[in-house]
Write a structure and sequence with these properties.
The complex is a heterodimer of chains A (202) and B (186).
Chain A: H1 5-10, H2 26-32, H3 36-59, H4 69-91, H5 93-99, H6 110-120, H7 125-155, E1 157-158, E2 161-162, H8 177-201
Antiparallel strand pairs in A: 1-2
Chain B: H1 2-49, E1 62-68, E2 74-84, E3 87-98, E4 103-111, E5 116-123, H2 137-140, H3 161-180, H4 182-185
Antiparallel strand pairs in B: 1-2, 2-3, 3-4, 4-5
Classes of the chains: A mainly alpha (202), B alpha+beta (186).
Chain lengths: 202, 186
């Protein structure tokens, strides 16, 4: 089932990029992407948890009895989430205030449990690291792009630098929850269009 | 039976190891977290009420034990001293009073001579547009230069009597604490 190391790492960027291809982890995707920085911060926090939970689940995969594997995975994931939360609070307080409840909610992000169950519990630590890093960075990229689009249209800035022309009236609606769905839908449509063109060529 | 034992042992071990790790990380980050919380929540108010210092009032903050709460745990008063050439000439102390909607937190700057320098609202949940006017300079500026003792009168905001009373109560609490623990503070 497992491909080469490179395949496992790069699949997260396009082929199975969450949240667009797997359509998992939509809750943080829609909620925190009001600006590029927020998306990036949330993505990196999730990546950290994903990489380490994958590594430890993979290392312990022969020790953990199958009956209690989900409970064990959750304990491992929750521990890393608390680590991220404490670290953010201690060193990136403003970002911690913005992301708020969505940091502890990484525990129930189905991408992380999904990778632990579907990949890390069946593969070796090196492969699992590559998988976690790839999927995590793919998730970060998605959140970052979605955040940039919403920030550009909703506030007229990119990474807090005004880029639109003078007199540009921002679509405040893009920063509200419905705007998140619209942006996600349009982005998905574009990705499907590109895939179709690729498939026709191939 | 052996299988059940194995499940129990493995899950217990995993939980114990992660619990231990988290305790250690909590210890390490406790200091920075306290500093960050004070920096982002209290610093704007401290900066507003104190001027002309050459130290970092946040870093130089002092904790003075002021007694115990009903559960017997020690209560500490946090004071932010403003120093010039190593000499404390004023302090910022936070007091709180009951407003129209819950507690109002007020940072009060008091000079060594017992004069209120300025006040800044740190926390409130008053009605936006009505009670929230107590945060406006039009209201807070009238505390500047008042003697730091009870009995002085300030104008309340019409329509926001409870909020105004809350701020007065908070200022009185802070001022009372400063005069009570004068020796430890200066």
């Amino acid at each position: 089932m497992a491909g080469t190391l490179r395949e496992e790492f790069t699949k997260g960027f396009w082929r199975t990029i969450p949240p667009f291809r797997l359509v998992l982890g939509l809750c943080p995707t829609l909620a925190v992407t009001t600006s590029g920085i927020n998306g990036l911060g949330m993505g990196l926090a999730t990546t950290f948890v994903l990489v380490f939970s994958n590594l430890f689940v993979s290392l312990l995969r022969r020790v953990i009895p199958t009956q209690v594997r989900i409970a064990s995975f959750i304990v491992i994931i929750a521990s890393f989430v608390v680590i991220v939360e404490l670290m953010m609070q201690a060193y990136f307080y403003p970002l911690f205030k913005i992301l708020g409840i969505f940091i502890p909610l990484i525990v129930v992000n189905c991408i992380i449990l999904g990778r632990a169950e579907a990949f890390a519990s069946k593969n070796g630590p090196v492969m699992s690291l590559a998988d976690g890093l790839g999927i995590g960075l793919g998730f970060t990229l998605s959140l970052f792009v979605l955040g940039l689009i919403r920030e550009l249209l909703g506030a007229g800035t990119l990474l807090e630098i005004p880029v639109m022309w003078e007199g540009f009236a921002p679509f405040a609606f893009m920063l509200k929850p419905p705007g998140a769905f619209v942006a996600l839908g349009v982005l998905l449509a574009f990705m499907n269009l590109i895939s179709q063109i690729q498939a026709r060529k191939g | 039976m052996r299988e059940i034992m194995r499940m129990i042992v493995v899950l217990t071990l995993i939980a114990a190891v992660s619990g231990l790790t988290l305790t250690m990380i909590h210890r390490v980050t406790a200091g920075p977290i306290e500093y960050q919380t004070i920096k982002f929540v209290k610093e704007p108010a401290v900066k507003k009420v104190l001027t002309g210092y050459d130290n970092d009032p946040i870093l130089d903050r002092k904790k003075i034990p002021v007694g115990t709460d009903p559960r017997g745990r020690p209560v500490e008063l946090v004071v932010f001293p403003a120093k010039k050439a190593g000499e404390t000439f004023a302090v910022a102390v936070e007091g709180s009073g009951k407003g129209y909607h819950g507690q109002i937190g007020v940072m009060v700057g008091v000079s060594k001579e017992g004069v209120i320098l300025d006040i800044g609202i740190t926390a409130h949940s008053e009605t936006p547009g009505i009670g929230s006017r107590v945060t406006a300079p039009a209201y807070t500026d009238q505390y500047q230069g008042l003697p730091a003792k009870k009995g002085t009168v300030v104008d309340a905001i019409s329509g926001a009597t409870y909020s105004s009373k809350g701020v007065v109560a908070a200022v009185n609490e802070a001022v009372g604490l400063v005069s009570k623990f004068r020796e430890e503070i200066f």
